Amino acid permease
Amino acid sequence: MEKSKKLSLFGLIGITMAFFGTVRSVPTLASTGWTQIVYMLIAACMFALPIALMSAELSTTWPQEGGPQVWVRNALGEKWGFVTSWLLWVQMFFGMVMVASTVGVLLGYVIDQPELGSNSLFIFACILISYWLITLLNLKFDMVKIAGDWGAIIGVYIPFLALVILGIAYFAKNGITTTGYLADFSVDKLLPDLSDLGSLPTLTGIIFIFAGVEISSVHANNIDNPKRNYPIAVIVSVLVLVVFNLIAGLSVANAVPMDQMNLANITQPFVIMTEDLGVPAIFNNIISLMILIGVLVQLSAWVLGPSKSMIKVADEGNLPSFFQKRNQRGIPINIVLVQAVVISLVSFLYVVIPDVSEAFLVITITTTILYCVVYLLISISAIRLRYAMPDAVRPFRLGAKGNGLMWFVSIIAMVSVIVTILVSLIPPSSVGQTQHLAYVIYQVSATIIMVGIALLINRFKKPSWKKQLN
């Protein structure tokens, strides 16, 4: 058998950055003004790096397909392994609603009707139409293969680079504006305003930039000298992303007037900057179309990605035979259709919460909470496996010997995810005073229900659910 080609250090850095390169989260970052610098450092150092390094050890030691589910199952048993795979599936219900919500905003700019981006009913309709259309197309065609890497280049890299260039040009012309989020700098503005607890949940939205950081660890075994090169790749990737996101975030914060940031509208800063710099307005139509293509390609990838993991879980007997059905192309059709139905129901939040920007933040927070539960299980598993399976061959190991470094890294990760969950339960400033209790009830209920369903399914699963091999 031909030996597979090893990834170079720079190749792994590129792959790692590709997982997180997006302009979609820039408005959330920018809305915190100067505080975004500290928030990004907290998200990178306390969240992204510890989880990525733990995942590197786990994925190189247990490289079987399944990732986090396999790690947690080996450490904590079948039940919690299933909970992990379940949460990684159901978080997509909220995450894809958040991603799809930008379709309506971008489409409004493409057709020169930007006011549609503030119409919650239009956003709701666009989520339903775009997600169902992409779902049906993926049942017939391999849309990710068709779109390929061009979708990321057109929809992510070019718009991100354009935003950074425009931001630098805007700053060169205007300096720090007196109307933007960066006006009247003082050192205390770098730190979170603890007198306004409603501003803290935005940190959750910033941490979401790094959600999925464990994914790149699947390539750790495919790189020369993983013990040396993987941590270098992770650290460099995270640092580059921090720098680029901060340049983009500070640029947007400088351009958009205070209290006018639309978190779901990435085209807003483009419009402000191009008007000021004298760039033809058609540029905004083109850039909106490019980002829209990127969003649709991302949605397409997520339609089938998690479902492929869930069909393995179903075949192992963790879900009823209903979820094991495949179409002619081998796609788990019932899983794909169930997730489309649930995503349609979750998108109804855009009708319940008329403020599009507020709904966007609330759903982002829900997604991050569910991810944090998974990261808590991964952190506990990393420690547990050091003692339960001490002799397992670890191509990449945190610490040459002993368990001290693993304890240190996992405790940082556990503290950061617990703090993130607690901060997420503080109602954002955009949520009205009368809705504070409803917000807390929603976030707590969504988390408990999603974890609870997995535990109930595991509790009542039957031997007959396991797929019989012919």
Q: What stands out?
A: The mean pLDDT is 84. The chain has one domain: 9-461. Residues 282-318 form the longest helix (37 residues).
